[in-house]
Design goal:
Length: 396
């Protein structure tokens, strides 16, 4: 009988989950069996489950009027559902996406009360995500205390970056208290590095562009992160769906002094009101922007492409050259026109796009004689978490 790993990604108002079968086949691989999500935590709950091909297999959105669901209630509902659904595939471990591992964790870790305490102390570093990640961990600890849990961090993959890439030019006393660059989307980069080594084993210097609603880029040498566009928080680097990306901190001082912005207003501006949404005034969704005739929408897309190209240059410099370039996540995996524009802009690096391969979404989208191989590789952060969890709970 196969065992299963439950993967959880808990946000402020939703919990996404995936169930991965493990112990099947030969290589100890994990295979997605089905995935689902509870949305509307704190408002109007709705629960839906889809099979591995994306077909809906279960839905429930009839909660008693006026009832609000907490993270604990949502996890309870998910576990109850899984009890029936996984009768022939017992869940032997739960893996969580946790945004911040701070200086303490450079790899996934089995959750203990001490780990929960350390992760709680990191809440100020990621106040919009870490508390919700922890809420799901605490909920499982309460509802199913014997189920081993594993925390997998968005920061951990970047712990290999050299110290110069981690430092801000701040007084060392501040650096020593953990105010430094960490980097995020590490589970995605780890997965891509693994997949790319199968496609292009000779690529030693790689830049990966994770372009989703959250977007970042990473320089990877010999499978290890050496630099990334995100720093202390996930607001740095590229412009994103609603986040500014890198911003002259002088702008914030100006807004505080002259426009009376307080911390809450600045947080809203940086995380929710800017990026593609703020620049376009139309949408944070790349699909809407590329089909809009509004000139501001076009400007937002241009800004995004410009910055991807700029970071590609910077990360190539950090690597001392580039062998392979990978697009991933919602925009990177789907937006052919944007990929073509980025590659056109990067012709100076010797990148030559194969338009037909690009239309088919790859995996290889560069010509045979391109100096840099260019790829489209769908990311799989949940699969990475399942892999880590299976190995830390001793499977198969
Ligand atoms: P996240 O996981 O960070 O929420 P995703 O990786 O799902 O984000 O990416 C979401 C982004 O991908 C959105 O901006 C969406 O518009 C974009 N996207 C998805 N499909 C397409 C497509 N076919 N063409 C262009 N953009 C797309």
């Amino acid at each position: 009988m196969a065992n299963a790993i439950l993967v959880l990604n808990a946000g402020s108002s939703s919990i996404k989950f995936g169930v991965f079968a493990t112990g099947i086949g030969t290589g100890g691989e994990t295979d997605l069996a089905f995935r689902g999500q509870m949305e509307g935590i704190g408002s109007d709950p709705a629960f839906a489950v889809k099979d591995a091909q994306g077909a809906t297999i279960f839905e429930h959105d009839e909660w008693p009027r006026g009832s609000t669901l907490t993270h604990l209630g949502a996890v309870r509902f998910i576990l109850e559902y899984l009890k029936d659904r996984c009768a022939d595939m017992p869940i032997v471990g739960a893996g969580h996406r946790v945004v911040h591992g701070g200086l303490a964790y450079d790899r996934p870790v089995v959750v203990t009360p001490e780990v929960i305490e350390t992760l709680t102390s990191l809440v100020p570093l990621a106040p919009l995500h870490q508390p919700h990640n922890l809420a799901a961990i605490r909920a499982i600890a309460e509802l199913d205390p014997n189920l081993p849990q594993v925390a997998c961090f968005d920061t951990a993959f970047h712990s290999t970056q050299p110290r110069v890439a981690q430092l801000f030019a701040l007084p060392w006393q501040l650096t020593d208290t953990g105010i430094r660059r960490y980097g995020f989307h590490g589970l995605s980069y780890e997965y891509i590095a693994q997949r790319l080594s199968g496609f292009d084993p000779n690529a030693r210097r790689v830049v990966v562009a994770h372009l989703g609603s959250g977007a970042s880029m990473c320089a990877i040498r010999d499978g290890k992160s050496i630099e990334s566009s995100m720093g202390f928080t996930a607001v740095d680097g590229l412009p994103m769906g609603t986040r500014t990306g890198a911003l002259d901190p002088g702008v914030l001082l100006y807004l505080m002094r002259e426009r009376r912005y307080d911390a809450a207003a600045i947080e809203r501006l940086l995380y929710k009101e800017s990026g593609l949404l703020g620049v376009s005034g139309v949408s944070n969704d790349m699909r809407h922007l590329t089909s809009s005739s509004d000139p501001r929408a076009a400007e937002a897309v241009e800004l995004f492409i410009y910055h991807v190209g700029k970071f590609l240059g910077a990360l190539t410099a950090a690597l001392g050259g580039i062998d392979a370039f990978v697009f991933t996540a919602g925009i990177g995996e789907n937006d052919r026109r944007l990929r073509a524009r980025v590659c056109e802009q990067a012709a100076w690096l010797g990148i030559a796009l194969d338009p037909e391969a690009n239309e088919c979404n790859g995996p290889r989208i560069s010509t045979a004689d391109s100096a840099v191989s260019v790829w489209v590789i769908p990311t799989n952060e949940e699969g990475m978490i399942a892999q880590h969890t299976a190995s830390l709970v001793g499977l198969p």
